[in-house]
Amino acid sequence: MRSGSELVRLDVQRHVATITLDSPHNRNALSRRLVAELTDHLHEAAGSDGVRVIVLTHSGGTFCAGADLTEAVAGGMERGTSALLALLQTVAALSKPVVAVVRGHVRAGGLGLVGACDVALASEASTFAFNESLLGLAPAIISLTTRSRLAERDVARKCLTGVTFDGVEAARSGLVTQVVPVEELDAALAALVAEFGKVSPQGLRETKALLNRPLLERMEVDGPGLVALSARLFSTEEAREGMTAFRERRPASWVEQ
């Protein structure tokens, strides 16, 4: 029996394992505890013989806000950056497809999580932003799972400016697979799950491995350097000012008024 205080919930119905990020108090930020629980649930779902597909969704209005800035300001991100890379590797390497279902907003590291999933469904009203540059950071680790999904001009504009864009733009640019009105999201998911239900388990496993091999190779080669870059940026005074300003809901010192 699992504790009712867990930040991530797992529910298995027939051949679908639904994993729900359930930490709305901090907008499902990637705290050390949430990342650990999510990783455990992903492995548990993948290890279940009856599960054909894993659905990753959320409670509250935000799918994932990225790094837990409270932890980052208080104690640095040396462990957190390594844990994020390991989480994205886990999603990409699982033997079963992972479908992200986004009903709300996604920021920073949350986009990396969406990018690591094999298929992503989102509502038209969802919003997305690579907002690291606004905080004195860079989308280092999450570039592994997002850059190849976006055209170079798209990724440059979105990452350099931190601009917010909606679900329609996320689909147009390739970050998500399909976008629908929020009231049609459940039907879109049901149709996708039905498609997976027709496919051989071996076919799913081997096709996912084939498709994700280049991504996993990039993670292995480039991941350690990007972890080091991310940890270094989090430790700078400029990033500390950016994160503090964000938490205090004020403009950072460098913002031109």
Q: Determine and state the CATH class of the domain at 8-183.
A: Alpha Beta
CATH superfamily of the domain at 8-183: 2-enoyl-CoA Hydratase, Chain A, domain 1
Terminal Cα span: 53 Å
Quaternary state of this entry equals: single chain
Helix content: 40-55%
Please provide the count of β strands. Answer: 10
Biggest beta-sheet profile: 6 strands, mixed
Strand percentage lies at: 15-25%
Mean pLDDT score: 94
The CATH topology assignment of the domain at 8-183 is 2-enoyl-CoA Hydratase, Chain A, domain 1
Q: Unreliable stretches, pLDDT < 50, 5 or more residues?
A: none
Order of helices and strands: EEHEEHHEEHEEHHEHEHHH
What is the topology, as strand order, of the major beta sheet?
1-2-3-5-7-10
Descriptive account of the structure:
With 257 residues, this protein is α/β, with parallel strands linked by helices. It has a domain at 8-183: 2-enoyl-CoA Hydratase, Chain A, domain 1 (Alpha-Beta Complex). It contains ten helices and ten strands. It has helices at residues 32-46, 69-75, 78-93, 109-116, 143-146, 152-161, 167-173, 185-196, 201-234, 237-247; strands at residues 8-13, 16-21, 53-58, 62-64, 98-102, 105-107, 119-123, 127-129, 165-166, 178-180. The strands form two sheets. Strands 1-2-3-5-7-10 form a six-stranded mixed sheet, sandwiched between helices. A four-stranded mixed sheet has the order 4-6-8-9. Strand 1 (8-13) and strand 2 (16-21) form a beta hairpin. It is globular. 42% of the residues are buried. The model has no long low-confidence stretch (mean pLDDT 94).
